[in-house]
Design brief:
The complex is a heterotrimer of chains A (528), B (228) and C (578). In chain A, a hairpin with a 2-residue loop joins strand 1 and strand 2. Chain A is of the alpha+beta class and 528 residues long. Chain A has 14 helices and 16 strands. The longest helix of chain B has 42 residues. Chain B is built from 6 helices and no strands. Classes of the chains: A alpha+beta (528), B mainly alpha (228), C mainly alpha (578).
Chain lengths: 528, 228, 578
C-alpha cells in the first residue's frame, strides 16, 4: 500500500509543467492545472485506446463473422470462460483505481488552502459577482495576484451559484447560508472568465465576471483604486454617475432595464416622477419617498403586474451609514426620466460642491468603515468612505455629528449591531450560536482542549481576530467569520480602536470586568 | 444445447386460458415489497429530519400533546386484535375472526380521531409561533449566517411542529389507506369467504398493520428525542 | 391516445383475417382503456411515452436552435440586460421541461413500461403479470402524472431545471407544486410497476426456468424493479417535502429559515442516481437479448451479465454523492463516493466484453435491431468512458456542471437507453403488431441517427471541457462553432426520428405479415403467434435454454424461423455449450 502511495506521489510530483496542454481542456494557468491536465491526458489516451479497441472489434466481428449463405450458424466456441472474465474484470478495475487515486490525491491538495493565503470574499447573487478584498475594496472584476495563494470565502445572497474559472481549474458551488471556500494560485498574468456553473435562474448564462491576474504590485494598485467609487482621480463624481456604477455592481441591471424594455422588475426609464398602479389598485406618484421604500423595503408595497418576493432586500446597503448609495441610485433613476422633478429627487444635490463629499464621507469614520468590511454588509459607499480618509484611523473615535468624543463602549454597542455580532451573540444571557456577551469578560471559559481560561482582554482579542485559534467548548467551531481580522486590526487599523470599542462594550456587560479584561485604552478618551 | 421438453404443468388450463390466474404466494410477496418500499419512505424521511435537527444551533423544547400516548396505545391494541383475527381464522374460528377484524377497524378509526385531536393542539402552537415570528423585526433575518437568535429559535420551533405534522399526517394517510382494504376484508369475513386454508386478505392486512405499528413506533421515538 | 388505440389497431383489416389476437380481442375504446391485458397496457405505455418523447424532442430542437448564436436565436433581449434576462427565462423553461419529460416521462418508464410489460410475461410463458389490475393502475398513475406535468407548464412553466435544486425551486414564481405532484404520481406508478414485475419474475416463472435459465432481459428488468421499489420512495418524500416547503414554509431545505439546501441534493440524488440505472439496465437487457439472437450464438458469460445487472443495481445505491462533489461535502466523503463510482463502472465494462465475446465467431446478421445494438455498444462506450473522468475528484472540479456532463449523460441516456429501446422496439415490433417494417429504410435510418447523435453530443463534450457551463441560454462567442455542429446534429436526429415514425406507421398498415419468429430467437415470446393471442399461448411452450439456436432453422415458407426435431443423441441434458 505504501508503495502504491509512493508511486502515486511520484506521479503527481513529476515535472508536470512539461505537459503543456491537454486536448480540449483550456490551457490552465494555476498551480492545479498541470496536475489536472496530467490526469486528463492519462484518461484521454486510455479512453481513446478502449474506444478504438471496442469500435474496432465491433466492426471487425461484424465483417469477419457476418451471416452469409455459407455461414448460417455460429462456429463452435465456448459460451463462458472464467479466467477470461476475471481478466477483463481486473484490468478495468486496476485502471479505474489508478485514476481514482490520482484524482483523490490532487483533490485533497485543492481542498486545503495554504496558511499564508490572501483572502477575498466572494458574494454571489442573482446575477452578479461581487468581490471584497482585504482592504475593503469592492469590485465586479476579480483581481488576483500572480504566484500568491488566494483563499476565496464565498457566500450567496439568494440561491445556489457555481464559482467556476475554467482557465484556473477551480470550481466550487456557492451554497446560501454557509461560507464556501476554495483557493487558487494563478501562475500567469492574463484575463480570464469566471462563469456561474450552477443554474440560478433568468440571468444564469450572463452571470460572468472577468478575472484579471496581475503581478502583486499592480494588483495592489487595482484594489486600492477599486476601493473608491465616489471619486475618480481624486475628484468627486456626480451622484448619478455613481448610481450608474451601482446599477451594475449591485446587480440592479438583472431585473430593471434603463431603456424601457420589459424585465423582471419595472424599467427605470421614465420611472421617476411618473405614476405607478399598486397591486391594491391605488395609483401613487413615484416620488423620492416611494422609490426609497421600494428599494429598502421591497415587500412593503407591491406594484401591479410584478411578482412579490423577487426583489432582494438590499436593506443595509442603502440605509443608515450607506444612505449615500440610495441617493446615488435614486439620482441615477431620476437622470433616466424625463418626468424627474423635485419630489422624485433625493434631498441632496447631484453635483458635489468642491470637496464636500470628501468631508461628508470622512465624517462617519467611526462606524461606517466598520460596516464596510464585515463580510455580509460591505457596501461600496462605506468603503469609499474609508478610502477617502487620507489619514490612518484616529486613535480617538468621534461621534459623527458633534465634536464631543464618544465613549468607546457606546461605539462598541453600535458596532455590535453593524458588524453583525448581534447575529450570534446575545447580550442578555440568552443562548445563541456563539457565547453570550453577558458576563463573559472575567469569567472562566472552557476550551475544547479541556483547558479553562479566564476571558481577559488578550483572550477576547484573540477570539475576535483569530477565531480559529481556540474553540470554546459547546460553541460550534468554524462559524465565527475570520474577516474581522482585516476589519479591526492590521496595517489599516494600527490603533485597533474599533476592536477596543467592542471589548469595552463586552466589559460593560460583565460584573467581573477588571483591569485585565479591559482594553489598554481608556473608555472615554480625554477631551482635547 | 438441448431444449428440455417439460411435461405440461397440471394447472396449464388455468395459466394459459380461461379465468385470471391465482398465483400462490404472489400477494404476500407483493404486499411485503410494498411494505419494504414504504418503510424506505418513512426511514429516509426520518433520517433527513434528524440531519436537519442536528443543525439546530440550540435545543428548543416543544411539548408533545399527551393524546399521542393514547393513540399509541390504541394502535398497539389494534395490532394485537388483527393478529388475533389471523390466528383465529387459521384455527377456523370464524366468529372470533370477524369480531377481531371489526375491533381492528374500529380501533383504526379511533386512532385517526385521536390524531385529529392531537393536530388541533399542535396547530395552536404553530399559530402562536407564527405570531411570534411576525412580532420580530424582520430586518435582522439575513440569510447569510446573521440570523438573529430569536428568529432561529422560532424557526426551529416551527420546524419541529411542521415535522410533527409531516410525520403524523404521513402515517395517518397510510392508516387511512389501510382501513379501506381492512373494511373489504371485514365484509368478506362476514360472507364467510375465509377459512383455515384460505385467508389471503387477512394476511395482507396483518402484514400491513404490523408495518403501520413499526413505523409509528419509529416516528414516536424520533419525536420524543427531538422534542425533548 | 383514445383515437389511436380505438381506431388504428382494432380495425386493422389484416389482423381481422387472422385468428383472434390481442389487438382484435376487443374492439371498443373501453376494451383498451380498462384492459387488464399486459400487452395492451404495454402498447398504451408505448404510445404515451412516444408522445412524450415527441414533445421532449421538439423542445430539444428548440434548445439547439436557440444556441445557434451566442446571444440566443429564439429567446433574446431587445438590447438591455434586463430584457434579455426576461427572455432567457423562456429558454430556462424549455430546457427544464425537456429534462423533466425526457427523464420522468420517457426514459424511466419507456423500457419497463412499454417493452417490459409487453415482453416479460411472454418471455416467462405466462398469461399475464402477477397483478394485472395493479398494472393498469400503474399506467393511469403515469398518465395522470404526465398530464399534470403538462398542465403545470400551461399554468406557469417551471424554470428550475429537472433537478429542482433548492432554494431556487422554493423561490421561483412557477408552478413547481403541480409539476412535482405529477412526478410524484409517476414515481408511484414506477414503484407499483417494480413490485408487480418482481413478483411476476419470482412467482410466474414456468417449471424448468430456474433463475439462471431466464432470458437476460428479465434479469435486467428484475434489477430495475429492485431499484424502483427501493429508491423511488425517497424521491417521493423529497418532492412532498419540497411541496410543503413551498406551501407551508417548513424550512427544511430553505437556508433563509435555517434549512439545508444540500440536504435536498442528497435526497434527490439518492433516487436520481439509481434512476440512471433504472433507465440503462433494461436497455442493457435488450442488448443481451439481441446480440446472441443476431449472432446465432449462445450468449457469452451468462452468469456474469446477469449478476453484473444486480451488482450495478446494488452499488448504484451508494454513489449518489458524486453529483455533489463541489458543493462542500467533506473531502473524505467525496473520496468514498468517488471510489464507489469507479467500482460501479466495472460491471458495465464486463457486460461490454461479454457482448463482444458473444459476437466472436458468430454468424452475425446485420438486421436493424442488431445495427442499433452495435450503435449502442459504441455510444455507450463513449458515454461510459466520459463518466470515468467525471468520477475522478480533481477532474470533476473542472468538468462539473459543464457541457461535458451534458454530453456524457446524453451519450448514456440517448446513445444507451434510447438506442437500446429503439433496438428493442424494432426487435419486438413484429411480435407487437404482426407486421414487418421496411428493412432497408430502417437500416439507413439507424446509420443517420448514429451520425446525428455523435454530431450532436461529441461537440458538447469538447466545448464542455473547454469551459462552457450547462443550462446557458447565451454563451461566449468562442464556443459557437461547437454549438452550430451540435445543432446540425440535432436536426439530423430529427430527420431520422421522423423517418422512423414514418416507416413504422407505414408498416402498421402496409407492412408484410410477420412470422411467429422472424429473427430466430430462442426465448419463449417467439413461440406464440405474431401478434400473440389474448391469452398469449395456445399451447404451453416448452422451456429450454433461451440462447440455444441449434434447433432453429429458417423456413422460407413462413419467412421465419421454426424449430426442428433434433437427433435423439443430442437430447442429453447439457446446460450450456462448452
Amino acid at each position: 500500500m505504501t508503495t502504491i502511495s509512493h508511486i502515486l506521489g511520484h506521479l503527481n510530483q513529476m515535472d508536470l509543467s512539461r505537459v503543456t496542454a491537454a486536448l480540449w481542456l483550456p490551457h490552465g494557468e494555476s498551480t492545479f492545472s498541470p496536475q489536472v491536465q496530467f490526469l486528463w491526458n492519462l484518461w484521454y489516451w486510455i479512453s481513446v485506446f478502449f474506444t478504438v479497441l471496442i469500435v474496432g472489434l465491433v466492426v471487425f466481428f461484424s465483417i469477419r463473422y457476418r451471416h452469409t449463405k455459407d455461414r448460417t450458424i455460429a462456429e463452435d466456441s465456448p459460451s463462458h470462460n472464467n479466467p477470461l472474465e476475471i481478466t477483463w474484470t481486473a484490468i478495468p478495475l486496476i485502471i479505474v483505481m489508478v485514476i481514482f487515486a490520482l484524482g483523490f490525491t490532487q483533490y485533497m491538495n485543492m481542498d486545503s488552502p495554504p496558511a499564508n493565503s490572501y483572502n477575498i470574499h466572494v458574494i454571489a447573487q442573482k446575477w452578479s459577482w461581487t468581490f471584497v478584498y482585504e482592504n475593503g475594496a469592492i469590485s465586479n472584476t476579480l483581481y488576483l495576484p500572480v504566484n500568491k495563494p488566494v483563499k476565496l470565502n464565498m457566500t450567496s445572497k439568494d440561491v445556489l451559484h457555481g464559482f467556476w474559472i475554467p482557465d484556473l481549474s477551480i470550481q466550487r458551488d456557492v451554497v446560501p447560508g454557509r461560507v464556501m471556500t476554495t483557493w487558487v494560485e494563478a501562475t500567469k498574468p492574463g484575463t480570464y472568465w469566471l462563469q456561474c456553473a450552477e443554474y440560478c435562474g433568468d440571468g444564469h448564462s450572463e452571470m460572468r465576471a472577468h478575472v484579471v491576474v496581475e503581478a502583486y504590485p499592480k494588483f495592489q494598485q487595482q484594489i486600492v483604486a477599486a476601493a473608491n467609487i465616489f471619486e475618480q482621480g481624486g475628484k468627486p463624481l456626480p451622484l448619478a454617475t455613481v448610481g450608474k456604477k451601482l446599477y451594475t455592481t449591485l446587480g440592479c441591471l438583472g431585473c430593471h432595464s434603463v431603456d424601457g424594455s420589459k424585465g423582471t422588475g419595472p424599467s427605470w426609464k421614465n420611472l421617476a416622477g411618473s405614476k405607478e398602479v399598486l397591486a391594491n389598485g391605488k395609483t401613487v406618484p413615484v416620488n423620492y419617498a416611494f422609490l426609497k421604500t421600494m428599494i429598502t423595503h421591497p415587500g412593503r408595497v407591491l406594484i401591479k403586474g410584478f411578482p412579490a418576493g423577487v426583489m432582494p432586500s438590499y436593506g443595509s446597503r442603502f440605509t443608515g451609514k450607506n444612505v449615500k448609495n440610495l441617493y446615488a441610485v435614486i439620482w441615477y433613476i431620476n437622470s433616466l426620466s424625463k418626468n424627474s422633478n423635485k419630489a422624485s429627487q433625493p434631498p441632496v444635490p447631484n453635483k458635489p460642491k468642491g470637496s464636500e463629499p470628501a468631508t461628508s464621507s470622512k465624517s462617519p469614520k467611526t462606524a461606517a468603515p466598520a460596516t464596510a468590511k464585515t463580510s455580509q454588509t460591505a457596501t461600496p459607499a462605506a468603503t469609499a468612505a474609508s478610502a477617502t480618509a487620507k489619514t490612518p484611523a484616529a486613535p480617538v473615535a468621534k461621534v459623527p455629528a458633534g465634536p464631543q468624543p464618544m465613549a468607546l463602549h457606546v461605539l462598541g454597542a453600535k458596532l455590535y449591531k453593524s458588524l453583525g455580532c448581534i447575529g450570534c451573540h446575545t447580550v442578555n444571557g440568552n443562548p445563541g450560536v456563539g457565547p453570550t456577551w453577558k458576563n463573559l469578560a472575567g469569567y472562566p471559559q472552557k476550551l475544547t482542549t479541556g483547558k479553562t481560561v479566564i476571558a481577559n482582554y488578550k483572550f477576547l482579542r484573540t477570539m475576535i481576530l483569530d477565531p480559529g485559534k481556540m474553540d470554546i467548548a459547546g460553541a460550534p467551531a468554524g462559524v465565527m467569520p475570520v474577516m474581522y481580522k482585516y476589519q479591526l486590526s492590521g496595517k489599516k487599523h494600527p490603533h485597533e480602536n474599533k476592536l477596543n470599542a467592542i471589548i469595552w462594550y463586552i466589559n460593560t456587560l460583565s460584573n467581573r470586568s477588571s483591569k485585565a479584561t479591559k482594553p489598554p485604552v481608556p473608555d472615554v478618551p480625554a477631551s482635547k | 444445447m438441448t431444449r428440455e421438453h417439460q411435461p405440461e404443468p397440471s394447472d396449464s388450463s388455468k395459466r394459459y386460458g380461461g379465468k385470471p390466474l391465482h398465483v400462490p404466494g404472489a400477494g404476500t410477496l407483493g404486499i411485503s415489497l410494498l411494505v419494504v418500499s414504504l418503510s424506505i419512505l418513512f426511514v429516509s424521511s426520518l433520517i433527513g429530519y434528524i440531519c436537519y435537527w442536528f443543525s439546530f444551533p440550540r435545543p428548543v423544547t416543544v411539548h408533545l400533546p399527551w393524546g399521542l400516548w393514547l393513540s399509541t396505545v390504541v394502535l398497539l391494541i389494534s395490532s394485537f386484535t388483527i393478529h388475533g383475527a389471523w390466528a383465529a381464522i387459521r384455527h377456523d374460528q370464524q366468529r372470533l375472526c370477524r369480531r377481531a377484524l371489526l375491533a381492528t377497524l374500529i380501533l383504526g378509526l379511533t386512532f385517526l380521531g385521536l390524531q385529529i385531536w392531537n393536530w388541533t393542539e399542535i396547530y395552536g402552537a404553530l399559530q402562536s409561533a407564527d405570531r411570534a415570528l411576525n412580532a420580530l423585526n424582520p430586518q435582522y433575518a439575513s440569510p447569510i449566517g446573521g440570523m438573529r437568535m430569536a428568529h432561529a429559535l422560532v424557526y426551529e420551533k416551527k420546524a419541529l411542529l411542521a415535522a410533527f405534522f409531516f410525520f403524523t399526517v404521513l402515517h395517518a394517510l397510510h392508516v387511512a389507506g389501510g382501513l379501506i382494504p381492512l373494511g373489504v376484508v371485514n365484509v368478506k369475513a362476514r360472507q364467510g369467504i375465509y377459512s383455515r386454508n384460505y385467508q389471503p386478505g387477512v394476511r395482507y392486512c396483518l402484514i400491513y398493520w404490523h408495518f403501520l405499528d413499526a413505523a409509528w413506533i419509529l416516528i414516536l421515538i424520533t419525536l420524543l428525542i427531538t422534542f425533548r | 391516445m383514445t383515437t389511436f388505440t380505438g381506431n388504428n389497431f382494432g380495425d386493422t383489416p389484416v389482423v381481422a383475417a387472422q385468428p383472434d389476437n390481442y389487438l382484435t380481442h376487443g374492439k371498443t375504446i373501453g376494451s383498451w382503456l380498462f384492459t387488464l391485458d399486459h400487452k395492451r397496457i404495454g402498447i398504451m405505455y408505448l404510445v404515451t411515452a412516444l408522445l412524450a418523447f415527441f414533445i421532449g424532442g421538439m423542445l430539444a430542437e428548440v434548445i439547439r436552435t436557440q444556441l445557434l448564436v451566442p446571444q440566443g436565436l429564439i429567446f433574446h433581449g431587445t438590447g438591455s440586460v434586463a430584457s434579455s434576462y426576461a427572455a432567457y427565462r423562456y429558454y430556462n423553461q424549455v430546457f427544464t421541461l425537456h429534462g423533466i419529460i425526457m427523464v420522468f416521462l420517457v426514459l424511466i418508464p419507456i423500457v419497463p413500461g412499454a417493452l417490459g410489460n409487453f415482453a416479460m410475461p411472454l418471455m416467462l410463458g405466462a398469461k399475464d403479470v402477477a397483478f394485472p389490475k395493479l398494472n393498469l393502475i400503474s399506467y393511469y398513475l403515469y398518465l395522470v402524472g404526465a398530464i399534470l406535468a403538462i398542465v403545470s407548464t400551461v399554468l406557469g412553466a417551471v424554470d428550475t431545471g429537472w433537478t429542482f435544486y433548492t432554494p431556487f425551486s422554493i423561490q421561483t414564481e412557477s408552478y413547481v407544486v403541480v409539476m412535482v405532484l405529477g412526478i410524484f404520481l409517476v414515481g408511484f406508478s414506477s414503484i407499483f410497476t417494480g413490485i408487480n414485475f418482481m413478483v411476476t419474475i419470482h412467482k410466474l416463472r414456468p417449471p424448468g426456468m430456474s433463475w439462471f435459465r431466464m432470458p437476460l432481459f428479465l434479469w435486467a428488468i428484475y434489477s430495475t424493479s429492485l431499484i424502483q421499489v427501493a429508491a423511488t420512495p425517497v424521491v417521493g418524500i423529497t418532492f412532498v417535502l419540497l411541496m410543503m416547503e413551498r406551501v407551508m414554509g417548513i424550512g427544511i431545505f430553505n437556508p433563509a429559515l435555517g434549512g439545508n439546501p444540500v440536504l435536498f441534493q442528497e435526497f434527490f440524488w439518492f433516487y436520481s442516481h439509481p434512476a440512471v440505472y433504472i433507465m440503462i439496465l433494461p436497455a442493457m437487457g435488450i442488448v443481451s437479448e439481441i446480440i446472441p439472437t443476431f449472432s446465432r450464438k449462445h450468449i457469452f458469460g451468462y452468469e456474469f451479465i446477469a449478476l453484473s445487472s444486480l451488482a450495478i443495481a446494488l452499488i448504484g445505491f451508494l454513489v449518489w454523492g458524486h453529483h455533489i462533489f463541489v458543493n462542500g461535502q467533506s473531502a473524505e466523503l467525496d473520496a468514498v463516493f468517488s471510489f464507489l463510482t469507479f467500482i460501479v463502472a466495472v460491471p458495465s465494462a464486463i457486460k461490454v466484453w461479454n457482448w463482444l465475446a458473444t459476437m466472436y465467431k458468430g454468424a452475425i446478421v446485420l438486421k436493424t435491431p442488431m445495427l442499433y445494438v452495435l450503435s449502442f455498444i459504441v455510444l455507450f462506450t463513449i458515454g461510459g468512458l466520459t463518466g470515468v473522468v467525471l468520477g475522478a475528484l480533481s477532474e470533476d472540479v473542472v468538468l462539473h456542471d459543464t457541457y461535458f456532463v451534458v454530453g456524457h449523460f446524453h451519450y448514456v441516456m440517448m446513445g444507451g437507453t434510447l438506442i437500446g429501446f429503439i433496438a428493442g422496439m424494432h426487435y419486438w415490433w413484429p411480435k407487437m403488431f404482426g407486421r414487418m417494417y421496411n428493412e432497408t429504410i430502417a437500416q439507413w435510418t439507424c446509420v443517420v441517427l448514429f451520425i446525428g447523435i455523435n454530431l450532436t453530443f461529441f461537440p458538447q463534450l469538447v466545448v464542455g471541457a473547454e469551459g462552457m457551463p450547462r443550462r446557458y441560454a447565451s454563451y461566449l462567442p468562442v464556443y459557437q462553432p461547437y454549438m452550430i455542429a451540435s445543432t446540425i446534429g440535432a436536426y439530423i436526429q430529427l430527420v431520422a426520428f421522423l423517418t422512423m415514425a414514418g416507416y413504422l406507421m407505414h408498416s402498421l398498415f402496409y407492412g408484410k405479415k410477420a412470422p411467429a419468429n422472424p429473427w430466430g430467437s430462442g426465448s419463449l415470446e417467439w413461440e406464440t403467434a405474431s401478434p400473440p393471442p389474448h391469452n398469449n399461448f395456445e399451447t404451453t411452450p416448452s422451456v429450454g435454454d433461451p440462447y440455444d439456436y441449434s434447433d432453429l432453422v429458417f423456413d422460407p415458407a413462413v419467412n421465419g424461423y421454426v424449430h426442428i426435431e433434433k437427433p435423439a443423441d443430442s437430447l442429453a441434458p447439457v446446460t450450456a455449450t462448452h
